[in-house]
Amino acid sequence: MQRDPSSPSFASSNGIELAYDCFGDPAAPPLLLIMGLGTQMIAWDEAFCERLAGRGYRVIRFDNRDIGLSTRLSAAGIPDVAKLLGQALAGVPVSASQVPYTLAHMADDAVGLLDALGIDRAHIVGASMGGAIGQEIALRHPARVRTLVSIMATSGAPDLPPPQPQALQVLLTPTPLDRDGYIARQQQVMKVLRAGSHPDEEALDAARAERSFERGLHPAGYARQLAAIIASGSRRERLASLKAPTLVIHGDVDPLVPIECGKDVARHVPGARMVTIEGMGHALPKVTWAPVIDAIAGHAVEGR
Fold first, then answer.
1. Would residue 151 count as lying in a domain?
2. What InterPro entries does the record point to (predicted)?
3. 3-class SS at 288?
4. How far is CA 72 from CA 10, 64, 65, 68, in A?
5. Per-state percent for the chain, helix, strand, coil, to nearest 5
6. Whole-angstrom Cα distance, residue 242 to residue 153?
7. Each residue's pLDDT tens digit in the chain (304 positions)?
8. φ, ψ at 85 (rounded to 5°)
9. Is residue 190 included in any domain, yes or no?
10. What residue numbers bound the domain in which 16 lies?
């Protein structure tokens, strides 16, 4: 029976409310899933979560701040992302004072959710921006992290390869606010990000986009999250102090965060291992679930 993604639970965390839900045995070791930029928790597909929970974990997914059903920080205003990006590309660091919040705040949100659920330590799994947030959690709150899995994420170092032009374009193009326009746009975005031919996934894209639309769009939140990424800068040097057992998972055809970015994370975290998924872009199509879930579960077992 499919869960109703419009009726999650809510927890107070770091001064805001986060929408979340859980899968599996409440007494099992907790595993927190963190999604990426402007992406709701339902992008962690229910069947993916159930399969991961079936490996012996209490799987928790949630909407980051400013997305889905979690608190929207509308009073913070909309940052000038183009200006911030231009500043960063010119080699001028963007300070935290220039943006409503940073990835460090979002990391603290996630730890606040663990607090609300009475969880002392959890396995942390993040995808894309969620992987960067996971890195921040492990750096800022090392005692709360059993293991870390960083999926299709970067250290944020400025000398790493940039996104492919088409992927960067979909990242920066405004989101349509009407249902049909949004669905068509998401179909285009996912086709670009997945890379290659995935007809089975493409057949599901419209329904997935409609679910996100029904839960609510928030383009201003997307802009604030993107500004948070820009202002958070590079974690490369700090990664040397990361203590949690770390696994890096990356696709070899990722058009948005090239695989060299994942290799950079693995190279700078002491003892980190890397799993490369052949044919995977910047998404988790069903064909990747088995190797990704095997990697996550196997790594978590090693870190118990």
1. yes
2. AB_hydrolase, AB_hydrolase_1, AB_hydrolase_fold
3. helix
4. 14, 10, 6, 9
5. 45, 15, 40
6. 16
7. 345 555 799 999 999 999 999 999 999 999 999 999 999 999 999 999 999 999 999 999 999 999 999 999 999 999 999 999 999 989 899 999 999 999 999 999 999 999 999 999 999 999 999 999 999 999 999 999 999 999 999 999 999 999 999 999 988 888 999 999 999 999 999 999 999 889 999 999 999 999 999 999 999 999 999 999 999 999 999 999 999 999 999 999 999 999 999 999 999 999 999 999 999 999 999 999 999 999 999 999 876 6
8. -65, -40
9. no
10. 9-160+219-302
CA distance 72 to 246: 31
Number of domains in the chain: 1
Q: How many whole angstroms separate alpha carbon 60 and alpha carbon 71? A: 18
CATH code of the domain covering residue 100: 3.40.50.1820
CA triple 134-31-99, angle to 5 deg: 30
Q: Kindly give the residue spans of alpha helices, DSSP state H, lying in the chain.
A: 46-53, 81-89, 103-116, 129-140, 165-172, 179-194, 199-215, 219-232, 259-268, 289-302
Sign of CA dihedral 91, 95, 99, 101: positive
In a domain, 187, yes or no: no
CA distance to 250, 271, 276, per residue, from 239 (Å): 18, 11, 20
Query: Which residue, 141, 157, 113, 156, is CA-closest to 242?
Result: 141
pTM > 0.90: yes
230 is written with which tokens?
Answer: 């820009």
Is residue 109 a contact partner of residue 33, using CB atoms and an 8 Å limit? no
Cα(83)–Cα(26) distance, integer angstroms: 45
Alpha helices in 24-92 (DSSP H): 46-53, 81-89
Residue 24 lies in a domain: yes
Q: Is the dihedral of CA 11, 25, 62, 142 positive or negative?
A: positive
